[in-house]
Amino acid sequence: MSIFSETDLDFLKSCIEKAEKSTSGEIRLHLEQICPSDLPERRAQQIFQELGMTQTKQRNAILIYLAYESKKFVLWGDQGIHDRVGQKFWDQQAHNLSAQMKSGNYVLGMQSVIEHLGIALGEFFPWDDSDENELDNSISTG
After folding, report:
1. CA distance 90 to 86
2. Which of 100, 116, 133 has the alpha carbon at shortest distance from 17?
3. Phi/psi class of residue 104: alpha, beta or left (left: φ > 0; alpha: ψ in -120 to 50)?
4. Residue 79, pLDDT score
5. CATH number of the CATH domain containing 10
6. In contact, 19 and 127? CB cutoff 8 Å
7. What pTM, to 2 d.p., does this model score?
8. Edge-to-edge strand list for the sheet holding 140-141
9. What are the tens digits of pLDDT across the range 15-38?
10. Range of 39's domain?
11. What is the DSSP string of 56-117?
């Protein structure tokens, strides 16, 4: 059973859609109960590949990976966005999400991180008339 209700998931999907309105970048959320690896970064990278997230034109996709029963998450950005925001940005976003989740504010924490990711993507990869949604906005599960 997920920590998110269907209503929560619908809301988070709408947050992703809203965040992507000002950018050519892509955000995906992947949820699973247990991280099957001792290294959640390795699992996030695997999911990133499986979801085709390396295929964006500008390499500007971001995955939010959450294994809720394992209490592990990873923010995984492709090379294009990572090169622009740097490690400090990822660390700050992870710190903020971790603090919200430790307080039990799962939906608020996800909403906040999605908004901040969208702002960063919009700054470095602004939307223009030729942009199209390159990745599905649905929330994947494993």
Report:
1. 7
2. 133
3. left
4. 96
5. 3.10.310.50
6. no
7. 0.95
8. 72-77, 61-67, 26-32, 140-141
9. 999 999 999 999 999 999 999 988
10. 6-127
11. STTS-EEEEEEETTTTEEEEEE-HHHHHHHHHHHHHHHHHHHHHHHHTT-HHHHHHHHHHHH
Whether 48 is in a domain gets the answer yes
Place of tokens 């991180």: 113
Place of tokens 């990745």: 135
Number of domains in the chain: 1
Look at residue 2 and tell me whether its pLDDT is greater than 90.
no
Q: Which tokens hold the place of 99?
A: 């603090």
Write the pLDDT tens digit of every residue in 40-89.
Answer: 999 999 999 999 999 999 999 999 999 999 999 999 999 999 999 999 99
On whether the CB atoms of residues 93 and 116 are closer than 8 A, the answer is: yes
Residues 122-139 pLDDT 10s: 999 998 877 777 788 889
- The candidate with the shortest Cα–Cα distance to 107, out of 61, 139, 76, is 139
Task: Give the β-pairing of 61-67 and 72-77.
Answer: antiparallel
